[in-house]
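User: Can you recover a sequence for this backbone? Please restate the input before giving your answer.

Assistant: Of course. Working from this structure:
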């Protein structure tokens, strides 16, 4: 019997556009936006931010150092201001609220930097949560099995009583979760209806 619903954040609770579309808020040049991806999102520093193994400021410095000088200003602007272009998926938050009212416990398991979490930490959704696990504070990222087992151990959860809602398009996070007994499948990014579909598949009515 499912008692616990575990939500990913990005593209589930927090809506974001594709990386290129996000970058287009900082430049009108599509080619530059596409090029800029590799100097931000495809860097080692980006991974280290999710792991909590580098400071926000140091990550920016390293990204700037490795990129052509013409991108330095843009890199800093994007890193400091990108979160303002993300929005809360109110429909999915409403689903979480209804689940909470029905007696389900709500948890978060998300790969996220400290900077991004601090930006969103005061949103109403987090007040619903019985536990929050953010990768940067754990120095672990999905799909590492240890971050899942840490969540289970910390909050004394049974894997078979948990349903995980994640949009990971690689499938690796759900593969790890399912391997240790946590239920769930990938949901479409930013798609509240697919969240409802998943809940229905497990006979959970909202």
């Amino acid at each position: 019997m499912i008692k616990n619903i575990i939500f990913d954040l990005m593209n589930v609770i927090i809506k974001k556009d594709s990386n290129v579309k996000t970058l287009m808020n900082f430049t009108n040049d599509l080619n530059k936006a596409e090029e800029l991806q590799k100097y931000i999102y495809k860097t080692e520093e980006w991974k280290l931010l999710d792991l909590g193994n580098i400071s926000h400021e140091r990550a920016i410095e390293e990204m700037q150092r490795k990129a052509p000088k013409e991108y330095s200003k843009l890199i800093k602007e994007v890193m400091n201001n990108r979160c303002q272009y993300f929005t809360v998926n109110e429909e999915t938050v409403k689903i979480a609220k209804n689940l909470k009212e029905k007696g389900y416990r709500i948890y978060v398991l998300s790969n996220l930097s400290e900077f991004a979490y601090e930006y969103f930490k005061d949103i109403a959704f987090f007040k619903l949560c019985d536990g929050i696990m953010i990768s940067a504070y754990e120095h672990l990222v999905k799909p590492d099995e240890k971050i899942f087992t840490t969540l289970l151990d910390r909050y004394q959860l049974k894997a078979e009583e948990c349903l995980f809602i994640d949009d990971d398009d690689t499938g690796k996070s759900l593969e790890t979760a399912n391997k240790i007994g946590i239920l769930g499948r990938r949901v479409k990014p930013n798609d509240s209806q697919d969240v409802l579909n998943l809940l229905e598949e497990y006979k959970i009515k909202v």
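That completes the design. The radius of gyration is 18 Å.
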